[in-house]
Amino acid sequence: MEKIHSYIYTSLQLVEDYQGDVPFSIYLKNHFRQHKKFGSRDRRWIKNICFAWFRSGGLFSDFNTMNRMLCSFYLIQTESDPRANDIILSGGDVYKDINYELSIPQKLDWIDANIGKVNRENRIPFKTEFTSALSVEEYLSGLWLQPKVWLRVRSQKMEQVQNILIKEGIIFQKHDELPNALQLEQGVSLEKLNFVEKGFAHVQDLSSQKTMELIPAKSGERWYDANAASGGKSLMLMDAVEGVQLTVSDNRESILVNLKERFRRNGIRNYTSFVTDLTNWSSEQPNAKLYDGIIADVPCSGSGTWSRSPEQMCYFNELKLKNYISLQDKITERLCALLKPGGKLVYITCSVFKLENEDRVEALEKNQGLKCLESKLYQGTDEGADTLFVALLEKK
Do 109 and 55 meet the contact criterion of CB atoms below 8 Å apart? Predict the structure, then answer.
């Protein structure tokens, strides 16, 4: 039991010391790098305990830290495991009658009856209205599950990528509708596989891949990927439509360095890139010409990705949401000024909140002279993917 107590003590120390200023996965790696006494199996158990804590959100906010941790860990167990059982039973005889085959709602009822009152209303410890198209129950259930790893394979490279995965014994699954999408299990290391370096494929969430449906680019048009980050949507666009005149930007030079390397690997050379702060009207904008289309993947709460990074849910609040909305309005106001009449703005968030989605689209129609042609929520819960909101708007 000494090792079990070490798991519990270390996990409690980690979640209590963590301040939310870096992704928890990085925080955890740094801790293990400094404390080398744990083997790979020990690290995996500690990681699972900690992430269960974050996944439970505010359900057990009224519990003491030990019961909060053990109840959170119990909820993610789908079958009896001797080590998991020992971890939970370290809480005493009150846990001796646990049943791993119960559904999560049934487990919560058991916790209600045996441990303490579950704060179901505080599942997400922050209150705001969800976007209208969201299946809320499905979204909340999905927060307990780590999403899959999705690859977008470049055209004509699927057979080569599949052969590499088969050779390495990596299990994969093709998507039923997207011919270039492959699903892998979490934890698969791609570092030893050279197809990423060769530009055959790259990691891109399934819902992100689906957004191409609402990007109506045509050959010869000028398109601008603002807030391009690592360039995933630009790569997708350039694969799908030949002859697009592409411009990309970000507010971080280091990000554009990585983007340029990805473009080089994928054979993309004819494009313009620059660093700019789209929230600052005095920031440099070297392209005087207007664009036929702009992809605005704006900064947001990231609530559609909280199953992937649940610690962000626990450190989010109303003030942060207001700050994101302000950024979204500033960025889209500037981008609208760069659109041709009849030009298309593709507004994208990885948010499940109405304030960041429908309300921002309504503001664009009211204040920027745009017309919403179509909007869609890609809820990836049942496919092991993120949830993204996309709206296609046209400048009058």
Answer: no
Residue closest to 345 by CA, chosen among 359, 322, 365? 365
**Which of the listed CATH numbers 3.30.70.1170, 3.40.50.880, 3.40.720.10, 3.10.20.120 matches domain 149-203?**
3.30.70.1170
Distance CA 377, CA 73 (A): 31
pLDDT at 191 > cutoff 80: no
Residue 284's pLDDT is 58
- What pairing do the DSSP bridges indicate for beta strands 271-275 and 245-250? parallel
121 within 8 A of 173, measured Cβ to Cβ: no
Q: Which amino acid is at 39?
A: G
Given this model, what pLDDT does residue 29 score?
94
pTM value surpassing 0.85: yes
- Which residue has tokens 């088969």? 166
Q: Which CATH number fits domain 212-395: 2.160.10.10, 3.40.50.720, 3.40.50.150, 3.40.50.1100?
A: 3.40.50.150
- Per-residue pLDDT tens over the stretch 204-248: 999 999 999 999 999 999 999 999 998 999 999 999 999 999 999
Q: Any idea where the domains of the chain sit in the sequence?
A: 2-123, 149-203, 212-395
Q: Read off the tokens for 64.
A: 């003491």
